[in-house]
User: Fold this.
Amino acid sequence: MNTTELANLNEKYGIHDQLTFSEGPGGIIIAAIRNPHGEATVALHGGHILSFKPRDHDPVLWLSQKSQFKTGKAIRGGIPVCWPWFADHPTDIDKPAHGFVRTAVWSVIESERLADDSIRLKLSIADSEDTKKLWPHRFKLEIDITVSDVLRIKLNATNIDDKPFTYGGALHSYFSISSIASIIINGLEGCAYLDKVDQGRRKVQEGAISFKQETDRIYLDTTADCIIEDSDIPRRIRISKKGSRTTVVWNPWIAKAGKMKDFGDDEYKRMVCVETTNADADVISLAPGDTHTLESTIRVEPWTRNND
Ligand code: BG6
Assistant:
C-alpha cells in the first residue's frame, strides 16, 4: 500500500482523534471511527463496515476469524455491500455472487463531525471498464455511514447512464450473538418467505424465528423492523430499514460452514445475518438521473423478559 495515499487520506478526511485511516490486514485501508457514543471500522475494500460498538456495549457485528483480506475476495462478516444483484446473477452463474462492489476498492468522498459528535463518512464507487464487462451500465454508488450509539447506513445508487437500469442488492449484515441455539428474531411473524434450503418453496413464518438447522430465507414484501432477542448477553439488536421490501435471514449451520474456506467450523454458533435487501420482485428500476436509497439503522436496546 502507498503511504502517500494514506497520508493524503488522513490529511483530507481525518478528524482529530475521531477518524483515522491506517493499513489493515492484507494491506487494505481501514477507517477507524471513535466518538463519545460509539466506534466503528470501515474498509475501503468493498465499502465494507467491519465493526460497530456503541459505548458500554459488546461489539454488534460479527467478523470471521478466517476472513481473507485480499484483492478480489469478499470480507466474511461485518456488512458487505451486495450490488447490483443479490445472490447468484439471475442469468449468468459465472458472474460473481452478490455482485461486484463488495470486492472492489471504494474512494472516500466526504467526512464530517456532526453537532451531536456523531461521525459521518461517505465512500463511493462508479462504473469502470471492469464493471462494464459484468454489468453494462453507468452508475454511481455511495455509502453514507453515520456512527454514534446507533449505526446508520444509506446506500445511494444513481443512474448516470442515458437509459434505465434495474438492480438488486443488500446490506448483508452479520450480527454477533451469544449462541444461535438461544436467540430468536422477532418482526417477521406472518410474513411469506422463499425457503432456499427447501428448493425455494414459499412458506409463511409462524411466530418468531429460531434456529435448529441451516437457514436461508428470503422474506417477501416486508418493511418491518427485525429484532434479535439475545437473552444471554442480554440485549436486543433492532434493525430498521427504508427502501427495502425484502429481508434475508441466513445461518449456514454445520455442513455449509465446513465448506467455506473463510468461515471457521464452529463460527456458525456466534453469528446470524439479517440482511436489508432488494431481491426477487423487489428489484429497483432507475430512470437516467434517478437515485434510490437503501437504508439500514442498527441499534442496541436493553433486553427485557416481557419483550416490551
Ligand atoms: C446469503 C444468501 O445472503 O449469503 C446465502 O442467502 C449465501 O445463500 C450467503 O450462502 C453467503 O454468500 P457468500 O457469497 O458471501 O458466500
